[in-house]
Amino acid sequence: MTIFLNGEKFVFDDGKTIEELIREHRLAPETTLVELNGTALRRREWTSHPLHEGDRVEILRVAAGG
Fold it and tell me: Do residues 46 and 19 lie in contact, with contact meaning Cβ atoms separated by under 8 Å?
């Protein structure tokens, strides 16, 4: 299946969840925000959202600073 991750095309196995995607990229869930097809997802929703062909995923990492 092909999805768009932060604007780039990627090929993944069918049925992969947002949570698995975050884990594969070794991102800390506490500092990661996810948008799926224009909708922000809460962390607790990551396991219940399998990716589908053509999905657009934006991943942002939050950093504190001043």
Answer: yes
Phi and psi, residue 19, nearest 5°: -60, -45
- Cα–Cα distance between 1 and 15 in angstroms, integer? 9
- The reported pTM is 0.86
**pLDDT tens profile 1-49:** 999 999 999 998 888 999 999 999 899 999 999 999 999 999 999 998 8
Query: What is the token pair recorded at 27?
Result: 């991102």
Q: Provide DSSP, 12-48.
A: --TT-BHHHHHHHTT--GGGEEEEETTEEE-GGGGGG
Amino acid at 45: E
